[in-house]
Design a protein that fits this description.
This protein is mainly β. It has one helix and 28 strands.
C-alpha cells in the first residue's frame, strides 16, 4: 500500500510540471510595464476556468521565486512577510467564469522593479502563468507633454473629465494610464487601467472610467472644489503625457429670507434681517430701500454682516439693516425694502435672486408702537444680470462677504 501511494505522488508531480510547461510555452512572453518613481502600479491577470480553481499566486522572480501572495478558495488569502492582503491583492469573479487576480504596488522605487509572475492552478487545465517586466522610468523629462485645464460644475451634477483630446496619434495600442487626484499636496491613485483601486471614502461609488479613458465623477460635491485630477499616460518607448484638470464647484443658494425684527420696542427704529443659506463659493447681499435714503453708513442707517460655515461646507450669510426715522419728519408714508443675493455661476456669470418685498408705513414723527405692515412678494426669478440692472431710481446698500 505504501509503494502504491509513493508512485501516485511522483506521477502527479510529473503531470503538473508537464502541464505547466505546455501552457508557459504558449503564453509566457513577458509584458513590459513602465512606471514612474513614486507612482502606484496595478498588475492584473485573468483566466476563464472550465473546471475548478485550486489556487492563485503572485510571485517575484529573481534568481529564485519569492512568494508575494496566495489565494485558496477554501483557506482564503495569505501574504508573505506579514503584509496585510487587503491593500496588496484582490480577487474577483465576473460572469462567464472569468477569475481576475490583481496585485497593487505602491510608491514605486528601483527595488520594486523586476519580473512578477501571476499563476493560476486550475483543475483539470493545470497551471497557467503570466509574466510582467516592471520597469522604472527615470529619463523622461524631455519627453513629457503636459496639459492644464479648469472645469466648472454645479453641485450634485455629473462631471466627465477628459484624459486627452485630439492626440490619438500620440497613443499607440500598447500604453499604461492612471487617474490620480491631488488635494493639499497629497496625491492618491483613483484608477489604474480599468481598475478602481482607491480606498478613500470620499470617492467611494463616485468615480468610474468613461469614454476615451475619461473620468466620470458623480455626484459632484462641495469638497471636490479646487481638487486637481490628473491623467497620466505612459506611451512606449517612454513618452509621458499628463493632463491635469482643476475642478471648480458652484452651488445656487436658496431664496433670501427677509424678516422684520419686532422684538425691539425702540421708538422710531426699524430693523430688518436678510438671511441666505447654501452659499458656495461666495455671494453678496445687497439691500434696496425705496426713497432717497443715502448709501452706506450714516446716523440714520446702519448695516452689520455675518458669515459662517455649516457642517456640510456651505456658507450662511446674514445682513442686518437698522433704520432710524424718529428724529425728523418722514418724507413718505410708505417705504419698501428688500434684499438681493448676487452669486457666481459657471461661465464667469453672476446671477441674482431677490427676497420678498416688505412695505411698511413710517407714519408721523411719533408713530404708533405697533404699526400695521403690508407684505408683498416679488417674482423669485433668477437672471444672469448684475444688480445694476435694477431701476436707477432705487437706492442700494451692499453687504459684501
Amino acid at each position: 500500500m505504501e509503494k502504491k501511494w509513493t508512485y501516485c505522488a511522483v506521477y502527479s508531480i510529473i503531470q503538473i510540471h508537464f502541464v505547466r510547461g505546455v501552457w508557459e510555452e504558449a503564453f509566457n512572453a513577458g509584458e513590459d510595464i513602465y512606471a514612474l518613481p513614486g507612482s502606484d502600479v496595478t498588475l492584473t491577470c485573468q483566466t476563464q476556468k472550465k473546471g475548478s480553481l485550486v489556487q492563485m499566486q503572485w510571485s517575484k522572480v529573481t534568481h529564485k521565486v519569492d512568494l508575494i501572495a496566495l489565494y485558496h478558495p477554501q483557506h482564503g488569502f495569505h501574504c508573505a512577510n506579514g503584509v496585510p492582503c487587503t491593500s496588496l491583492v484582490a480577487f474577483t469573479e465576473t460572469p462567464g467564469n472569468v477569475s481576475r487576480w490583481t496585485l497593487h504596488l505602491r510608491n514605486m522605487s528601483p527595488s520594486l522593479s523586476g519580473k512578477y509572475e501571476c499563476s493560476f492552478t486550475l483543475f483539470p487545465e493545470g497551471i497557467q502563468t503570466k509574466i510582467y517586466n516592471l520597469l522604472i522610468q527615470t529619463n523622461v523629462i524631455q519627453d513629457e507633454w503636459r496639459s492644464n485645464n479648469t472645469i466648472e460644475r454645479e453641485i450634485n451634477r455629473t462631471l466627465e473629465i477628459p484624459c486627452f483630446q485630439n492626440i490619438s496619434s500620440e497613443i499607440s495600442s500598447e500604453f499604461t494610464f492612471s487617474w490620480l487626484v491631488e488635494d493639499n499636496g497629497t496625491q492618491e491613485t483613483l484608477i489604474t487601467q480599468d481598475h478602481s483601486i482607491s480606498n478613500s471614502t470620499l470617492f467611494k461609488d463616485r468615480v468610474s472610467l468613461g469614454t476615451d479613458y475619461g473620468l466620470y465623477l458623480s455626484p459632484v460635491q462641495i469638497h471636490d472644489d479646487n481638487r486637481k485630477f490628473s491623467c497620466h499616460v505612459i506611451v512606449r518607448p517612454g513618452k509621458i503625457l499628463r493632463s491635469s484638470t482643476t475642478v471648480k464647484v458652484f452651488a445656487e443658494p436658496e431664496i433670501p429670507m427677509i424678516v422684520e425684527n419686532n422684538s425691539t420696542d425702540v421708538l422710531g427704529e426699524k430693523i430688518f434681517t436678510c438671511s441666505l443659506r447654501n452659499v458656495f463659493p461666495t455671494a453678496n447681499l445687497t439691500w434696496f430701500i425705496d426713497g432717497s435714503f443715502p448709501q452706506g453708513e450714516s446716523e440714520e442707517m446702519g448695516i452689520t454682516n455675518e458669515r459662517r460655515k455649516d457642517k456640510n461646507g456651505f456658507f450662511e450669510l446674514k445682513s442686518v439693516l437698522k433704520r432710524m426715522y424718529g428724529n425728523k419728519p418722514a418724507q413718505s408714508n410708505n417705504v419698501t425694502t428688500w434684499c438681493m443675493a448676487l452669486f457666481p455661476v459657471p461661465g464667469n456669470k453672476v446671477w441674482n435672486i431677490s427676497s420678498k418685498k416688505i412695505t411698511f408705513s413710517l407714519g408721523s414723527v411719533n408713530p404708533p408702537t405697533d404699526p400695521a405692515l403690508s407684505v408683498t412678494e416679488s417674482t423669485f426669478d433668477t437672471q444672469s444680470s448684475p444688480a445694476n440692472s435694477i431701476s436707477p431710481t432705487s437706492k442700494n446698500v451692499s453687504a459684501l462677504f
